[in-house]
Amino acid sequence: MILNLVLDALATLLPLFDKSSSLLSNSTAVVRWDAFHFLSIAEHGYQYEQQWAFLPGIALVIRLSTALVGHQHCLKGVAFLISLLTLDSYRVFYELSLAHLRSESLAYISTVLALIPSSPVTLFAAPYNEPFFTYLSYRGMLFCAQEHWLLAALAFCAATMFRSNGLFLAGFIIWGILIQPHLPHLLSSRKLPRITSRLVLDVLYAALLTILVFAPFIYHNYFAYATFCIPSKDQLPLSYQTPQWCSKTIPTVYTHVQSTYWNAGFLNYWSPKQFPNFLIAAPPFILLYSFGFWHIRAVLLTHGFCTSRPQSSRHRQSLKASPFSTLSLTPHVIHSLFTASILLFTSHTQIILRLAAAMPILYWAAAWLWSGTRPIGINNHHSPPTLAQPAPSTFYGKLWVYWSVCWFLISIILWTSFLPPA
Q1: Which of 27, 146, 162, 421 is most buried, judging by how many CB atoms fall within 10 Å of its CB?
Q2: Does position 225 have pLDDT exceeding 80, yes or no?
Q3: Are 57 and 132 in contact (CB under 8 A)?
């Protein structure tokens, strides 16, 4: 709520790069970029083909707010709900951090670092998907850590109502039900597991929960297919032509709209004019990839798969002692690397600034930098590399905090002036 007041104050001082927001009767400084689409969908439904790129979650929230407090105050109602979710999000995030890092101090540091997100307006103030998606992602991840799989699937299902990348969250359920229980056997025997009744039940259970997570996305595309591809003939104009995407092998309106209107596709965004967006988005990518590959190598070393040099039992123990090299973090690392790669190579790269908050591993990686842990491979000639070996300083951790604070403030000004990144 405080950020909303700051945005309104800045809006009176800063010129607008795009004055489209002034055309709306209920426009405030939080109505920028995709918020126009969300408000339009909430009020009129899906009127234009390009609007089908957005799932209906935030539009439903805006409609609910309108029903409760009226059209004139609907944005204030959404802002109030976001404030409540934000408070509980950080409580859930702290519990999630404590469950994985097993350290109150590291959980506290991670939570403090999460208070400086790379897209503060979309997370704290604007009628955007991010606060709801982030909260539901945290909830589902915590349920996974507690092995409450059905509750996790319900939380991830709700998250998918807001963003399509909620589909990726099903990986946490698959990891917890299938991979984690059967991984020790694979690591010890290095043979294919026997087909047992438990394995069959686990596969079926994971499949059912995955379908539940996918359900909002499937229904969204089915509804679009029914609207555009098999519409009622008495409601069609004489000149109506069925869209080409209806005849594709997998006729999804989402992929069609993303490629047609947003130019999404492999390396489509890689052009010289987009270099500023790549530069802006670089810090989260660098941190996610650096920590991700560090963690994967640490896990491989811990379990004896990386044999480039002999590993002593003492060295193995030092690896296992690090809270950042536990297997419980591995699904988070895989999820973040997969999501980051999708955004880097096939989408608008700067979206990572909005989505980063929904990936706890980013803030755990920042805590890893802040704790002064020396990455594998950075060592002197007299001692083997260990994860617990103290680094000369916490320079990179401080650098991350400096960038986070600076970008936090700059992004607020850019948003208020209707300037990129969106």
Answers
A1: 162
A2: yes
A3: yes
